[in-house]
Amino acid sequence: MENSALKASFGERYRHHVIIRDQLITLAGGVVDHLLTVETLAELIDAVNLARRLKLEYVVIGQGSGVLFSDVGFAGLVIINRTKRLSIDVTKSQVIADSGVLMQRLIVESASRDLTGLEFLAGLRGTVGGAAVMNRQANGVSLSQIVKSVTVLMPDGQIVTQPAQFMDYSEMSSRLTRVLANRLDLTETPELPVILTVTLQLSRNKKEEIMRKIQHFSQQNRAAWPLTLPSLGPVFKAYQGQPAERYLSQVETKRLVQGRAKLVPKQPNFILTHTAGLGASRTSDIMTLTLELQRAVAKKFDLWLEPNFICYGQWE
Predict the structure, then answer these.
(1) In terms of residue numbers, what domain contains 270?
(2) Measured in Å, how far apart are the chain's first and last C-alpha atoms?
(3) pLDDT tens, residue by residue, 86-130
(4) Where do runs of H (alpha helix) occur along the chain?
(5) What is the CATH classification number for the domain harbouring 37?
(6) Are 93 and 173 part of one and the same domain?
């Protein structure tokens, strides 16, 4: 019933029984029952509302840099968000971006209009919506510092614009990620608001200065993030204001390998999820390696690092 209804509504953009790792930049994950790509807000709203009517579990993702799907599979609908509308109001120094807009496109187009404030994310992967949900952080700056408002599709079907306070941001998290992270049963996905657009409050600056910052932070991020490798990360959130790398770099991690899952060399807060010639890591191995890292840090520092990714599907 579900696949026929989705096929009737979305045609060839809907697919049944798809290996999700082929759709994600992490190149990890098993089979999902239903997969749909949307390109407009109207399609995103229709897809979510249809899933709700069908009582079908669903997940909206961008590039998937902060999610991990089980090897066993996900018995629901994965909606890949490719919405791309972007509006820039130079007089107010504001941008309104669809949640599927790539962050790097937003940085470049804002800079072209002499708007500054996004340079700290230069070169990093992901979409505006994903960054807003996860409260993406780099170089000591968080996206929450420039979020003015979000327009969301509420669980009751209403579309409302909410101030940034609605997201209840904390370091590298929001109210949405905390609900998902605190699930006792990882097989269940609670009904949450879906972010449609994000309004960011930027400021004016000379284009030359903005481009200088973009180049600087791009170099910084390339050194700190394995941007050319299929990987999951940052695996852990900061702990009481201190980056997780501070603790991970002081524990013995060279021998921490689980199956094909291993730490990215010199970047202990990232797990390599796909190895050339060997293939993808099992997500169960990634989860086991994450737990081993938590235990190693807990043993040395008596603290527990919190994962910075969301799990979906059936976990053994």
Answers:
(1) 231-312
(2) 27
(3) 999 999 999 999 999 999 999 999 999 999 999 999 999 999 999
(4) 2-10, 41-53, 103-112, 128-134, 175-181, 207-224, 244-248, 283-301
(5) 3.30.43.10
(6) yes
